Amino acid sequence: MYFTRTGAIVLRQFYLMRGSLSRVLPLFVWAGIDIVLWGFITKYLNTVASSGFNFVPSLLGAVLLWDFLIRVMQGVTMTFFEDVWSRNFLNIFATPLSISEYLSGLVLSSIASSSVGLVVMVVLATALFGLSFFVYGVMLVPFFLVLFMCGIALGILGSSVVLRLGPPAEWFVWPIPAIISPFVGVFYPLSTLPRWMRFISLALPPSYVFEGMRAIVSGGTSSARGVFLGACLALLYILFACWFFARVYRHAVQTGLIARYSAETLS
Amino acid sequence: MSEVLAVTQLRKTYGEVVAVDRISFEVRRKEIVGLLGPNGAGKTTTINMILGVLTPDSGRISIEGIDIATHRSQALHRTNFAAVYAPLPGNLTVQQNLRVFGLLYGVGNLVERIEELLRQFDLEKFRDVKCGVLSSGEQTRVSLAKAMLNSPQLLLLDEPTASLDPAIARDIRSKIKEFAARGTGGVLWTSHNMYEVEEVCDRVLFLSRGKILLEGDPKTLPREHGKATLEELFISVAREPLTLEVE
To answer: What does the pLDDT look like over A208-221, one tens digit per residue?
Structure first.
């Protein structure tokens, strides 16, 4: 693997970001709005709840973690979409760039772009609503790691779908986090869910993070085994997503779709 | 080895349609080979297979002896292309595009190389201009500059002068002839401009319905087949390929 070729993908994204306010603002604006909105909701809940339960670390913390996953996923897909929108596949895949180098470029771009969103969210959540990450202790690192890995897997999977089905299929990608969120229990314990939904939850890495986070907030300890299982699942999904992307790419090269991508051939 | 490109028994079908039918040819060093034929003859399909963006059903493509099917990156490292249907991203400036593609092709001394190409293709005043706002002729020059970035051993040009005015087209032709003459690479060129082909190409291949029907020197080939000009020969190939096949 050549890092200069991976670096080229990141550099391209940097150039696009640097010159475009409409690309920079979405990195943090929606995440920021979410934090502000949920920050006030948690404040309100704190005043009306008779139990004295502090909703900030459980609800606002969950929003922050979930938004982080979304930013990571979108970091990957947005970098990929730049090639879709500029009809650049022929130029880019006729270079010595390999699929692993290309995907690494998408991931590195996502790390950079999602970091911006994360910093803004953390600053807003701590400064305006007093969210303290010390509550989560050392488990915070594996929590973020699992969500990051899951976001990468979803991003690559979403990109594969668009590569296979053509540019309009990007509308299949945007709702992915919304479809997953009820199953992973971002805002409620998994025990709230009906039995069939809980089975699906078990296969989704973020479920382990949010269950662990709630356990810590309510004074217990997070299951390290559960988070480890989540990390293993996320790693498995990344491997699957990379395999799937490579398979879709091979199909696109076989059918000529790469060379005539805008034609949306489905043969 | 004198060949930069060797294509052997290349075949590609789309369902029932045979786009390229077991063609074999080579491009030698310092040679400009014209790949001619009517629309749908299989020229772009052939170029796409050489670029590794389309997998052949059968056959072999080797660039400088490197098989593209098994050593794709190494083979493409020695190749570059410009095509009228593949403009560079319009949301990046000329310089940014050249830098990104320079990194993708692993070009050494990239800053100097970009400056050299900006001068060579008269693009210095557009270096900070986004490619999308350039005229089609200027965009073609940027694509050609990108195609020359890695001083390729094999340069593939799919109708490179299609959108250029005659003066710029002549200038581009002379630059490509220069490239072939002084370098160690060869050029595979497709064009519908027979005057241009006659001026530039050392050898032409006439492709029709996926098969190579004729091959030879563009200056002597028309007479060999009883035609006055290359354009007449082209029209015969396009309209009556079977007659020429029998000849």
So the answer is: 999 999 888 888 77
Residue A60 carries which DSSP code?
I
Contact of A47 with chain B, judged by CB distance below 8 Å, is answered with: no
Is the alpha carbon torsion for A165, A169, A172, A174 positive or negative? positive
State the total domains in chain B: 2
CB-nearest to A95 from B54, B76, B93 is: B76
Q: What are the chain B neighbours of A258 within 8 Å (beta carbons)?
A: 53-54
pTM of the model: 0.92
CB contact under 8 A, A12 and B100: yes
Residue A201 structure tokens: 């939850």
Q: Mind listing the pLDDT tens digit for each residue in B207-236? A: 988 999 999 999 898 888 888 888 888 888
Q: What is the pLDDT of residues A153-183, one digit of tens each?
A: 999 999 999 999 988 888 899 999 999 999 9
Residues of A in Cβ contact (< 8 Å) with B73: 96-98
Range of the domain at B175: 12-78+153-247
Kindly state the percentage of chain A with pLDDT values over 70: 97
Pick the range with the lowest mean pLDDT from A181-190, B43-52, B197-206, B224-233.
B224-233
Domain extent, residue A198, equals 3-263
B194 and B237 in a single domain? The answer is: yes
The residue in chain B having the minimum alpha-carbon distance to the alpha carbon of residue A258 is: B53
Q: What is the CATH number of the domain that holds B210?
A: 3.40.50.300
Per-residue burial over B151-186, b if 16 or more Cβ lie within 10 Å, else e, is ebbbbbbbbbbbbbeeebbebbbebbbebbeebebb
Question: Which residues have CB under 8 Å from A260's CB, separation 6+?
Answer: none
Q: Which ipTM score applies to this complex? A: 0.90
Structure tokens at B40: 């749908």
CA distance A157 to A173: 9
The answer to whether residue B106 sits within a structural domain is: yes
Number of domains within chain A: 1
Rounded-to-integer distance, Cα A69 and Cα B175, Å: 51
- Kindly indicate the confidence band of residue B241, based on its pLDDT and cuts at 50, 70 and 90: low
Of A16, A250, A255, the CB nearest to B91: A16
Q: Is the pLDDT of residue B154 over 50?
A: yes
Phi/psi zone of residue A166: left (φ > 0), alpha (ψ -120 to 50 degrees), beta? Answer: left
Rounded to the nearest 10 degrees, the angle between the axes of helix A61-85 and helix A140-165 is 30
B88, A91: Cβ pair inside 8 Å?
yes
The amino acid at B177: K
- DSSP, collapsed to helix, strand or coil, labels residue B19 as strand
Chain A residue numbers with beta carbons less than 8 Å from the beta carbon of B146 are: 91
Is the pLDDT reported for residue A39 higher than 80? Answer: yes
